[in-house]
Amino acid sequence: MQSKWLTTLSLCALMFVALPARADRALATAKNCMSCHAMERKLVGPAFKDVAAKYRGDKAASDRLTQKIMEGGVGAWGKVPMPSNPQVSEAEAKRLAAWVLSQ
Q1: What is the DSSP annotation of 15-79?
Q2: Residue 2, CB half-sphere, CA atoms under 13 Å: how many?
Q3: At a CB cut-off of 8 Å and minimum separation 6, what does 33 contact?
Q4: Using CA atoms, how far apart are residues 82 and 63, in angstroms rounded to an integer?
Q5: CATH number at residue 55
Q6: Is residue 31 part of a domain?
Q7: pTM tops 0.90
Q8: Inter-axis angle of helices 90-101 and 48-55, to 10 degrees?
Q9: Is 89 helix (H, G, I), strand (E, B) or coil?
Q10: For a Cys-Cys bond, which of 31, 61, 96, 102 suits 55, CB 3.0-4.6 Å?
Q11: At residue 75, what are phi and psi to the nearest 5 degrees?
């Protein structure tokens, strides 16, 4: 009986930990981020893993990426501009920035 309880508890814990990562990838897909970005390779914009590596250790990165997600920008990764994303709320942009930086 105790073994089943521990197994169930372990599975619930794994689902709780994995859920935010899946939810934020789903958010990135829903907000069209995946049209220009991929996890591991450059498309139109940089790979999410490259963005995370560039800003690792930068305490202000989350705020800057949040703004860039909403307002767009150019120059951080070359001459191709990132368009603004008015369909993304500030709360969603914060979630996306945190998710990208966790890659």
Answers
A1: HHHHHHHHHHHHHHHHTTGGGTB-SSSBSSS--HHHHHHHHTT-TTHHHHHHHHHHH-B-SSSSS
A2: 0
A3: 69, 96
A4: 16
A5: 1.10.760.10
A6: yes
A7: no
A8: 80
A9: coil
A10: 61
A11: 110, -30
